[in-house]
Amino acid sequence: MAPSEVELAGGADAALRAYYAARAAEYDAIYRKPERQADLRALEAWLVPRFRGARVLEMACGTGYWTQFLARSAASVLGLDAAPQTLALARARALGAHVHWAVGDAYALPRTPEAFDAAFAGFWFSHIPKARRVAFLLGLHAALPAGAPVVLLDNCFVPGSSTPICETDAAGDTWQRRTLGDGSEHRVLKNFPDRTELDSAAARAGAAPGEFHRWPYFWAYAYRTPGPR
Question: Which domain holds residue 214?
Answer without folding.
Answer: 14-224
